């Protein structure tokens, strides 16, 4: 990983972790529920979504006390979605990132409710921003709802489930990922841009960037699933092939998937030209997403 | 039921139903997900929460195009909570209001996701209000998050689950209900007051009203569970006694529970004195909650 990105992550990730814990811990809630919410919040993860929010602000040379909160809100939505995706009725996963999944530790009922409450908390956090203009806050709430609901992440999860029993075309596979993971990543980029008072033309470019890194992220995940061991991934490797699921490698072959990944990467970085920086933080993130081992 | 309340409900309930359907139907979403969301939205219900929002506006002599949307947002939160409460890992109910529960029709995975997406939609709806002032919108989002999350409805569900395996005191039972059902009812009253530009002192009185009708609503439910047949209720009667659950009748006896109900009713209606109306819509609602048969 690039040294500048590494130092950015080393600086920001602990702030994100501390703030997420604070935002849950200060809620009045039954202790079992809070424990379950915090378990998944602290179960690791690369924090890519919140880091992207902060990366946008860094590239615009802006700073905002609200940015950290918005970053955390996005990560709480991601966390809730993982808890629900892992449930026995969905992916039925016992482990995530090498740790027992939420329902394995707290039981299914509490896992459902912890996910529910994490989603609610995310919206509550947006409503508690202290520096953003009211219009910006409302825009963020609307964007997060759109990105995470039936027309975004949750809809993508449904498409993904339905895709498990059908052979998908490349276009259909893209649709799944644009919704399931892309929408929330796009929220992160767009939210960062809103908090940076970006202009509309800049926002358009950043949306393209977000779309392309979202697809790059997924194709890289698919490639890693084929090329890594279970130990390297912290989750079962080759699970896609085992389940006959449509993936980029299954549709394009490993080499074709790699080429497609490079195309998304090129398109993503080209959208950053307007920043007029050779190594913007967003560029370094795009590089990392393509080059990562896990 | 009082004729004035009846005519209010006959006028407003169809508007609520139509608007909820419109608000879901206009979302771009996989058709199976939308179908599952709409199934539960249209599975009946007394629409008490959205009607209360509109009743507050009626008592203040106000009208707001946003009120119907806020009313629907509250009902979507209620609907999502019912879908998740009915899941096999929670209450494991096969029927609600005489119809098969969501997961019995669409499967557990889709039921979880439909609930998730209904919650998201509620917040999205608040962010789309067109007439409320931005500060009011943000206040509504903050209030709904507080009322429905870990410190509100979801927390109450956890307390309720934990209470099933322990004998509760009267105070603990009240805590369960203040969270599980009271918080969202309070949101409805407070939201109506905000949209009516109520003064702080009026808001205080309305919060007392909301708290008391919330508890009255629950105690009446407990009493009906003992005194009604399964057919009358549209759900299994005497289920509380069968499960050894702490209820108002089990703690106070049926007569004691009835007295407590009357006390809540009196306290609720006393909080409405400031309206200086003998038969405000909120008063008629309090009467109805106490006198209803189902």
Explain this structure.
Two copies of one chain form a homodimer. Chain A has helices at residues 3-25, 31-41, 48-59, 65-86, 102-106, 108-126, 134-148, 153-163, 170-195, 200-227, 230-233, 239-242, 248-270, 281-291; strands at 95-96, 99-100. Chain A has 294 residues and is mostly helical. Chain A contains 14 helices and two strands; from the N terminus they run H-H-H-H-E-E-H-H-H-H-H-H-H-H-H-H. In chain A, strands 1-2 form a two-stranded antiparallel sheet. In chain A, helix 4 (65-86) packs antiparallel against helix 6 (108-126). Chain A starts with a helix and ends with a helix. The interface between A and B is large, with 52 and 52 residues.
Short structural description:
The structure is a homodimer of 294-residue chains. Chain A is built from 14 helices and two strands, in the order ααααββαααααααααα.
- The average pLDDT value of chain A, as a whole number, equals 95
* Count of DSSP H/I helices of chain A: 14
**Spans where pLDDT lies below 50 across 5 or more residues of chain A:** none
Cα shape of chain A: globular
Whole-angstrom Rg of chain A: 18 Å
Q: What does the oligomeric state look like here?
A: homodimer
Instruction: Give the strand content of chain A.
Output: under 5%
Number of strands of chain A: 2
Helicity of chain A, in percent? over 70%
């Amino acid at each position: 990983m690039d040294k500048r990105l590494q130092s950015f992550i080393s600086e920001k990730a602990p702030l994100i972790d501390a703030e997420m814990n604070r935002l849950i811990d200060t809620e009045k809630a039954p202790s079992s529920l809070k424990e379950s919410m915090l378990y998944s919040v602290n179960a690791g993860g690369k924090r890519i979504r919140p880091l992207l929010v902060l990366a946008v602000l860094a590239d615009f040379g802006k700073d905002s006390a609200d940015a950290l909160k918005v970053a955390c809100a996005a990560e709480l939505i991601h966390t809730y979605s993982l808890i629900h995706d892992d449930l026995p009725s969905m992916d039925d996963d016992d482990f995530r990132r090498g740790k027992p999944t939420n329902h394995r530790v707290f039981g299914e009922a509490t896992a459902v409710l912890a996910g529910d409450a994490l989603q609610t908390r995310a919206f509550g956090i947006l409503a508690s921003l202290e520096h953003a203009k009211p219009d910006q806050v409302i825009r963020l709430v609307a964007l997060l709802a759109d990105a995470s609901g039936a027309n975004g992440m949750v809809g993508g999860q449904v498409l993904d489930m339905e895709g498990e029993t059908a052979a998908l075309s490349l276009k259909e596979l893209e649709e799944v990922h644009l919704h399931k993971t892309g929408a929330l990543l796009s929220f992160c980029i767009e939210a960062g841009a809103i908090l940076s008072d970006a202009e509309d033309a800049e926002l358009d470019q950043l949306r393209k960037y977000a779309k392309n890194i979202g697809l790059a992220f997924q194709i890289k995940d698919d490639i890693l699933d084929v090329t890594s061991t279970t130990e390297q991934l912290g989750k079962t490797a080759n699970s896609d092939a085992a389940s006959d699921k449509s993936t980029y490698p299954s549709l394009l072959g490993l080499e074709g998937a790699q080429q497609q990944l490079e195309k998304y990467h090129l398109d993503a970085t080209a959208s950053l030209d307007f920043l007029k920086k050779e190594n913007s933080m967003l560029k370094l993130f795009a590089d990392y997403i393509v080059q990562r081992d896990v």
